[in-house]
What we know:
Layout: E1 7-11, H1 15-28, H2 30-57, H3 63-95, E2 98-103, E3 106-110, E4 115-119, E5 125-128, E6 132-136, E7 145-149, H4 156-169, E8 171-172, H5 173-182, H6 193-199
Amino acid sequence: MTADVSVQxxxxxTLREISDGLKLxxxxxxxxxxxxxxxxxxxxxxxxxxxxxxxxxxxxxxxLGVLQLMVTVVVIAIACRWLMALGLLGYARHLGEHRxxxxxxxxxxxxxxxTNHTGWEFYGRWxxxxxxxxxxxxxxxxxxVLILPKRGLSSPQDAERVRxxxxxxxxxxxxxxxxxxxxxxxPEEGPNDAEVVRDA
Length: 200
């Protein structure tokens, strides 16, 4: 079975890959999704208030100061993610080139200064981006995160093997969302019910 074949990744982490991983961590952890929705809601509300004030009072409106504050907060929030990514990049570069093996027993990482093996039970779910696979711990923040750059795979077929290994052992966030959307339409227990419980 393909899902039982080990896959090797060899890479030196880049800032873009780490940033993408942190973005996926935020989008696919329950607390991150909640914070993202609240921020969007507050941003839309403030945007409407500012637009109405400017339309009524013109360019002398005090709401323009609030707009400047909002833009500043957004820039700081984006900068914080990049600063976190820079910090993690420094740590990853200190470790040197990573040689990662993903197999039925878990994930083994070997670098110049560090060797580690983590069993599948440590992680609860996974997500995939354009450049990376991200494994997250099952806590509400998804605080434990492992970023696996696709660039480290030796062939396109290896990406499919990684997907199969992850899907066989962890919760895929796409299937969780699909199961939640269909929960109201399917009263019978479906194949993803156990996965939804694990993600809750």
